[in-house]
Amino acid sequence: MKKSEARKIFSAQRSALKPLEVNTKQDLLLILFQQLILPKCSIVHAYLPLYERNEPDPTPLLDFMHFRQPGMQVTYAKIVPNNFSMLHFLQDDEMFFERNQYGIPEPIGGIAVKETDIDIVFIPLLAFDKSGNRVGYGKGYYDRFLSKCRKDAMKIGLSFFPPVDSIEDVDFFDKKLDFCITPESVYAF
């Protein structure tokens, strides 16, 4: 399957989900996530979901991680459109978010964090394949970001749907997931 086809199919499938289905799938993601053995981490990168697109929400997973590792900190990204990069800011009680030109909530201000300081990355996606390749929204922000992270930084995707067999048009710049969690299974790559 080509990336463009996967984007169409899985965007439509997510849009068709009813609120109760989304809530049930979200609960199942958390249950399966709790079975993962995670390394001790100091900084986790997360994203705020686009609820109107039924995007999986990493927040309950972060809450569980905070329970297990109380000193853990969370970063959120702000995109830099002119060079397709992202800046990362630590969450604190004063952080607030505004939507960017793509409708994605981004932090306004905060303490900047280098990519190499991040231990675990939750990555938004539309689809993934059985080899750990992901299909994002098509701008390459996360692939650029992940190329700057440490090699041992854990990359975790969340999907309400199982993988496709193969993404045909993967290129050199695409970064693979380490894990993808669905309501039915945890996929390790």
What are the defining features of this structure?
189 residues; alpha/beta; Rossmann fold; eight-stranded mixed beta sheet; two-stranded antiparallel ribbon
Please specify the SSE layout and strand pairing.
Layout: H1 3-15, H2 19-33, E1 43-45, H3 59-68, E2 73-80, E3 85-90, E4 96-99, E5 105-108, E6 112-113, E7 120-123, E8 127-128, E9 134-135, H4 141-148, E10 154-158, E11 179-181, E12 186-188
Parallel strand pairs: 1-2, 1-7, 7-10, 10-11
Antiparallel strand pairs: 2-3, 3-6, 4-5, 8-9, 11-12
Structure overview:
With about 190 residues, this protein is α/β, with parallel strands linked by helices. It has one domain (about 5-189): Rossmann fold (3-Layer(aba) Sandwich). The chain has helices at about 5-15, 20-35, 60-70, 140-150; strands spanning about 45, 75-80, 85-90, 95-100, 105-110, 110-115, 120-125, 125-130, 135, 155-160, 180, 185-189. Strands 6-3-2-1-7-10-11-12 form an eight-stranded mixed beta sheet, with helices on both faces. It has a two-stranded antiparallel ribbon with strand order 4-5. Strands 8-9 form a two-stranded antiparallel ribbon. A hairpin with a 5-residue loop joins strand 4 and strand 5 (about 105-110). The longest helix is centred in the first third of the chain and has 15 residues, at about 20-35. The protein is globular and about 40 Å long. The relative contact order is 0.20. The mean pLDDT is about 95.
